[in-house]
Amino acid sequence: MLRFLLLTSLAALVLAEPQPRYLEDNTGEGRVVGGEVARPNSWPWQISLQYQSGSYFYHTCGGTLVRRGWVMTAAHCVDRSMTWRVVLGDHDINNHEGREQYLSVSQVYVHPNWNSNNVAGGYDIALLRLSTDAVLNNYVQLGVLPPSGQVLAHNHPCYISGWGRTQTGGNLSAQLKQAYLPVVDYNTCSSSGWWGSTVKSSMVCAGGGSDSGCQGDSGGPLNCSVNGQWVVHGVTSFVSSLGCNTYQKPTVFTRASAYISWMNSIMG
């Protein structure tokens, strides 16, 4: 299987650089393989971003509660005019468990340099202003953001979290999942045979083995253990169009530490 994946990857490189593919759910292609169900509310800053259609709301992306009234997500998740809400404290998105907070989004701030026609251009980040502040408790907490400019070393331990599909083309996981995705440093990830020039230094790569596991929602966090604390270092952005766990095509995240000053300018 590994040899097959490698040959597939090499064949694709001969044809063209693999195309990035976003991971929001309404493509039907999105979130995929492996991982494990997380302990309920063990990632208490993880949110479900939902859009309204008719009288119902539907999950499409993840996100991170970064202040009581603010959520960080991917620009491509909110790159259209819709009515949005954020669900905090959730574990099983199909059941109301009594811990959830449902907050409407009053304002969407997409990074001004974001270009929806250029996935590899970067700037895939947005902030959502909530209509009311979240109530912090055992189930809802703020995600910790890294210092501006901080870059993690190769193989640094991180987890992706999201309501992922259990297999390619399979059903969504109703319960929040997690998967171990160690960091792939920029020099490796941008090299020939990996992502090449598609990846920019303002991004973080993680995973990339044939067993890279579950790809979480677009917009959701890359949770990295730094000095005994979980820090959100990435916003899930894209994977290879060849498949979510394609060999040497790790999941690519917007690097949160590259956008700290922009976020502070928006949130005040």
From TrEMBL:
One MF term in the entry's GO annotations = metal ion binding
Reactions accelerated catalytically: Hydrolysis of proteins, including elastin. Preferential cleavage: Ala-|-Xaa
Cofactor(s) demanded: Ca(2+)
Offer one Pfam family short name for this entry: Trypsin
One biological process term from GO is: proteolysis
UniProt keyword list: Calcium, Disulfide bond, Hydrolase, Metal-binding, Protease, Secreted, Serine protease, Signal
**Mind telling me which InterPro entries this protein's record contains?**
Peptidase_S1_Elastase_sf, Peptidase_S1_PA, Peptidase_S1_PA_chymotrypsin, Peptidase_S1A, Trypsin_dom, TRYPSIN_HIS, TRYPSIN_SER
Its GO CC terms are: extracellular space
Matching entries from Gene3D superfamilies are given as: Trypsin-like serine proteases (2.40.10.10)
Q: Which residues form the signal peptide?
A: 1-16
What residues does the Peptidase S1 domain cover? 32-268
UniProt keyword Secreted, yes or no? yes
Instruction: State the CDD domains in the record.
Output: Tryp_SPc
Write the Enzyme Commission number(s) for this entry. Answer: 3.4.21.36
The name under which this protein is listed is: pancreatic elastase
Q: Which organism is it from?
A: Xiphophorus maculatus (Southern platyfish)
